[in-house]
Amino acid sequence: MTSDSLPIPIVSSIAPFSERRKAWLCDVWGVLHDGIQAFEPAVQACLTFRKKGGAVVLISNSPRPSPGVRGHLRALGVPDDCFDALVTSGDVTRDLMEGYRGKPIFHLGPPQDKAFFEGLAVQFSSPPEAAVIVCTGLFDDERESPEDYRPMLAKFAARRIPMICANPDLVVERGRKLLPCAGALAALYEGMGQTVIQAGKPFRPIYELALGRLTTPVRPAELLAIGDGVDTDIKGAFALGIDAIYVASRVHIHDRERDSVLDSAAVDRIFAERPRPLAAMLQLKW
What we know:
single chain; alpha/beta; Rossmann fold; 7-stranded parallel beta sheet; 5-stranded parallel beta sheet; 8 helices; globular
């Protein structure tokens, strides 16, 4: 990590930071695509790193299990051969749900996320009967806000029902829009003094799963994390002693600060009270 007394370097190429690295732990949404289309320079960077002998493990806070995310990546133009493995928050969540096998659960999330539960012995219930909330997101993130859920969550809180959050992200960039994620609902519920079990970044379980997908053990110094989430990707890497590169998506950087040149002062402000990356990039490029 960079010294707190020095500005975070703004760079245009990840190549110098990839020397002597055996693997990347690369974020997906915001780094490889924006939810609508792939970022071709980022795809090419992954392909180049793999051709040079490195391994690329995609590590996503998507609440969907990895097979479904892999299909979505193909549809967006992210080919299978630009990464070695893919792990998601949804994969970790399915493991966490084993502790609630046979108990009634309430799924808080959009209908399309029902695929998340395929193959699990799940007993869905209405809110009054639920023993646990599994939160994959808002019912309609285009029209709703987390505050719309306060009355519902207050009723759960009165019964002290735990929540499993399948995506710790607070917001996601879809095209040019910022939309709320499951993490925003989890934060609201935690604010009510309730228990939330987090499945994805920055928490250790998803990193353990990702590192387990490498064919040979790799030391932290041989890894490089890449992501656009300061409190997920960068914070999670820092906690494990892994160097990180910050990709400045619209999640944290305004358009006026990330036009054709990334605003160095804006980057330094974001990380003033946070773990700092090795460098920042406007987009992932080799």
